[in-house]
Amino acid sequence: MANPPDKFRGQLLSPNPTDDHARRWLRQQLESVIPKADELIKKMELKQTYKDVTFETLNKPDFLQSLWEAFPAVDWDKAYNEFQAAGEAASAGAPGGDRAEIAVLP
């Protein structure tokens, strides 16, 4: 270490700090300002809610627009195509009725 900070140098008993001294000092400095994960996270909880959506609801333009605006990161075109296929199968008399489930995470 050619030019250690004065704050570091003042805590040394020898004039020549080693890399190990520098690592320990730097770790102490970082630990004093960065909180530990268990201090930040007290209780973590994930809730998942399932909502039934009918094929007819999915075909309402205002419903689809609301979904796209509320959840822009979701590939709604893919989901819509899957639900459309499920609705067509249900109308053809396939088991499962005319309802499809989507997961909505808060």
Sum up the structure in keywords.
106 residues, mainly alpha, 6 helices, 11% strand
Radius of gyration: 29 Å
- Average pLDDT reading: 77
Low-pLDDT stretches: none
The beta-strand count equals 2
Question: How many helical elements?
Answer: 6
Beta-strand proportion: 5-15%
Q: Give the neighbour order of strands across the main sheet.
A: 1-2
Order of helices and strands: HHHEHHHE
Distance between the termini: 51 Å
What share of the residues lie within helices? 40-55%
Gross morphology:
rod-shaped
Structural class, judged by helices and strands? mainly alpha
Largest sheet: 2 strands, antiparallel
Short structural summary:
With 106 residues, the chain is mostly helical. It has six helices and two strands; from the N terminus they run H-H-H-E-H-H-H-E.
Structural summary, described in words:
The protein is mainly α and 106 residues long. Helix content is 50%, strand content 11%. The chain contains six helices and two strands. A two-stranded antiparallel sheet has the order 1-2.
Question: How are the secondary structure elements laid out?
Answer:
Blueprint: H1 6-9, H2 19-33, H3 37-40, E1 49-54, H4 55-58, H5 61-70, H6 76-91, E2 99-104
Antiparallel strand pairs: 1-2
